[in-house]
Amino acid sequence: MDPRSRALLRPRLAGGQLQSRRNFITIIEQAHEGWRLTFGRNPVPLKPGLNIAIPVVHTVLNVDMRETSIAIPNLPGYTSDNVPVTCSGSLFYRVTDSYKSCFAVSNVAENVKNTGTSAVRSVLGSFTYDQVIADRNELNKRLNQVIGNSIQGWGVECTRFEIQNFQPANREVERQLELQMEAERNRRKQMLDTQAQINVAEGMKQRVILESEGHLQAKSNEADAAFKTVVREAEARKQQSLMEASALAQQVTEIARSLSNSEEPSPEDKQRALAALIEIKRLEQLKAIAASQSNSTYFFGDKASMGVGSGVEAFNVDYAQHVKKGIEGNLDAKGKKIDPSPVAL
Which of 177, 204, 210, 253 is at 20 to 30 A from 228, Cα to Cα? Predict the structure, then answer.
């Protein structure tokens, strides 16, 4: 039998609606489900393939179980901020329970379309215009949820809803929205500029703080360095004094050994060695004074200051006079005589 003849003999049900036929065999196609009624009651499910259906006695309802879509074109509505818009989209659904789709609702496709149209107007009113423009997927999810909850009692599942077109209802509204969007962009630009200026000022503030902290740290480091320098110089002078004292003590000990001809000189020997060392130093100073070419005057003190009465008689008055006579014949670097006044250490 050719397909055309076969189509004439086989009754079809579109959306659960019956089409009459007059043969004893009905074919349920793949992805379809059928229900056979006997005198309009006692429904019996029919699986895909060949099934018996007696004319007049039996009535067969054929339901398509595949996913299908319904177009909802140019639907007017209002957003939550009272912007008139025109919206169009596609509603995708699939029959999950063929029994309910046949006996719980009269016309599945028509009722699903009506439910989708009502849901679009309702859900659209809960979104602002900017929200729909910014995130259309959220509107699709909300429509899918609302429509699915409404038609699930009919054995129908809403798989998804896709907004295809969304625009203002007229040009005047569109122009006002463009002006509003431009004002919003200017406001955001001003906010960004203000934030940028705040960031620059904050950066300058941090720079000044860091510079002051750097200067403070530098001054602190300089003070620490100066303190450590003074401490080290004092330690160096102390060490130098200790070394000089040690050298002087060693000189006194050596002179004492020379004077006593003993490895362990007595305190008296060390005292005489110290006096001799002092005399040597004084003679060196007097020699330097005698050899000097400067026009200076030196005054000698009394006998006690020159060691008289202390055990040291190297500088008595006669000796001082002798030194003075020796100095009187000397001239300074400018050819002038040195003042013959008494010289004092």
Answer: 210
